[in-house]
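Please check this record.
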Amino acid sequence: MPPPASNCLAQATTTPEVTTDMLVVFGVVGLALVLFLTERLPIDVTAILLIVVLVVLEPWTGIDPETGISGFANEATITVLAMLILSGGISRTGIVQELGRRMAAFAGDSVRKQVFATVAATAPVSGFLNNTPVVALLVPVVSDVANRGNTSPSKLLIPLSYASQMGGMLTLIGTSTNILASDVSARLGSEYPELHRFSMFEFTQLGVLVVIVGSLYLIFVGHYLLPERVPPRADYLAEYAVGDYVADVAVVPGSPLAGGTVRDASAALGSDIDVVQVVHDGGRSVAPRQGTRLGEGDVLVVRTGRDAITALEDAEGVEPVGQPGTTELSGSAEGVLTELVVAFDSRLVGERLDPEEFREEFDAAILGLRSHGELVAERIVGKRLEVGDTLLVQAPPEALDRLSHGEDVIVAREPPRPDYRTGKARIAVAIMVGVVAVAALEIYPILVSALAGVVAMVVTGVLEPNELYDAVEWDIIFLLAGVIPLGIALEESGAAGYLAWVVVQSAGFLSPIAVLWLFYILTGLLTEVISNNASVVLLIPVAAAAAAGIGANPFAFVLAVTFAASTAFLGPIGYQTNLFVYGPGGYRFGDYARIGAPLQLVLSVVTVLGIAFFWGV
């Protein structure tokens, strides 16, 4: 086992020896980076694979089976799990949505006021609720604010995501990254006396500074840099060019489809054709079930490609009705048009799109698809879905209510009849205040107060017992469990100390505050390609050792890494809230950098100077 990193660095004239253990751990880190970057495997599967690899290579990594699975029982992991459940309880009451509506009531048609309302409703709440579900809840609210004010949603949705990230830095519980960073800091405390577990409001003063500066930028500068990708009050059907791919066909007398079901019609017409509506005796069935019976004279509204629409003219048992592009699909009492965003932990991620199965399971008919912000015009059947992909659907109002409470998709417009437990709102707020107060007063650790809050949510009826599991983003829990042992291996093998020595040798001629700024920038760039939680685990040990090596304050460097990992503004994949607004805002990849790069640069200076002022370097 190599000597502690701080000792290695203190001996400035000594070059640390590169051991086999270090090389093996570097190899595992490299594997993790490749898998996170390429997304060849789901993030939770990647995390499990890392545990397996670390344990199999125990002679070099030092990670035995017990240590390998220790991340599942780690205080940070359990605390994040509890906080996600508490956030889920708050969301069930509709408090966040109501706050968003009230803040937007005065905004009118002023873009600046709308951005202010978005930031003001998002940032403070994100300090106490996990910012990921906050954005998921507010996407439809902010979209409606834009539409009512005749503003492009593109002007407001990226500011929504950025405000949630900045707000997450107000308290320990604002984001899972803070909780994980606190755990890593506590683990390193035996080696660096300056490091410790974060208190509830450990860095709130810096978080307030970041929120104020970032909000001013978004309100007075940022929205000018965002193009209007989605027109105000956009016509969904026109935006997705649905008219080019939808047609009406009637079941003719004597048709073999008469007396059959929608399933029979789909099989007869071909796999590329999806029946999205059935018109029977003047009534319109939206997203019909596979078992829906058909009769002579029924009109089937089908979605397919241009070539298949032409082929329908020769299909047996049906004949085209009207002209292509004239099908009636506008929203009505029977069916509401809206967008669904594939969520980060959705079961749909990685699955190939089957409109018939989707309609059967979710009671919603798919009319269009955007992937990576680009319209998938022709064939959507069989398209593999990714996080942030956006589906244009038509569904009955009650189906949208169910979808808005699920974990698979984010409904981009509020359901017509939202079902919130408004009567439990005060209880939910009281429970959350109690959790924060108990932890802040250090009566009990945040882990204990959060778990007690979960029990209170169930006992008081804010959450049903079966809803506990739906509230948890399990991919985040598995990710934490996988990267925690990787961080331990990085420390125990001496790999973190070696990387710190390389940094010191490369940037030793710079002042400590300049090195601190470099770590902020490095963390921000790394977070753009891998998980923010992984960035914290990999870089905090290196940053602490580098600080010790140049005689700086390790706690200052830990804070710089923590803040940088939670403010990823350069692209849609650096932070999951950025993905949530990708489709509804109609954004392109470069739109994030256009508004985010100046913000990242400004906040890097503000954060580093703030750390130096409050804690010293």
Q: What stands out?
A: Residues 1-13 have pLDDT under 50 and may be disordered.
